[in-house]
Design a protein that fits this description.
Elements lengths: L1 E6 L4 E10 L2 E11 L6 H19 L3 E5 L7 H20 L4 E4 L1 H9 L6 H11 L9 H22 L1
Parallel strand pairs: 1-4, 4-5
Antiparallel strand pairs: 1-2, 2-3
Helix pairs in contact: 1-2, 3-5
């Protein structure tokens, strides 16, 4: 099974693709979609849609896992990030991918085993689980890989139940 993980936003959208087969992981690709703050917001959202569709068309994942937003500061930023997230969900759905959503706490719990783990702990576990030489950069790409790993672990748990 190929899982597309997404760390949503509007300035930077992280994506990570992993193959999960026989209880093991194989990294396929990861990176970010960046938008320019000087562009119209609508053009930024369009760029996310176009680029994400290209990634889906290229790798043909079986499903999409996306992180829920967590903000406790600026409402304007939350709204813009939520719109970026909405584009990601719609894009995957338009490509007939089932979309699964996970909170940051669920992602940390699935990857590290502790829901309040530090970002560095999550990144180190991603490196280990995917047998990478270094921690994926930028952080948004690493976060997207974590969401994909979270979904695979959630599937495994659901099968056991």
């Amino acid at each position: 099974m190929v899982i597309l993980g997404i760390d949503p936003g509007f300035a930077i959208v992280g994506y990570g693709l992993v193959e999960y087969k026989n209880n093991s992981f194989k990294p396929i690709d990861y990176g970010v979609i960046r938008t320019d703050a000087k562009e119209l917001f609508s053009d930024r959202l369009k760029k996310i849609d176009v680029q994400l569709k290209k990634i889906i068309d290229m790798y043909k994942p079986d499903c999409c896992s996306i992180e829920d937003l967590f903000f406790n500061t600026n409402a304007k930023t939350v709204i813009a990030a939520a719109q970026g997230r909405g584009v990601c969900v719609l894009c995957a759905s338009a490509k007939d991918l089932p979309v699964y959503e996970y909170t940051p706490l669920q992602v940390k719990q699935a990857v590290v085993g502790y829901g309040r783990a530090a970002k560095g702990q999550v990144q180190q576990m991603i490196k280990i689980i995917l047998n990478l030489n270094e921690i994926p950069k930028p952080d948004d790409a690493a976060d997207a890989l974590a969401v994909a790993i979270c979904h695979a672990h959630s599937l495994l748990t659901a099968k056991r139940i």
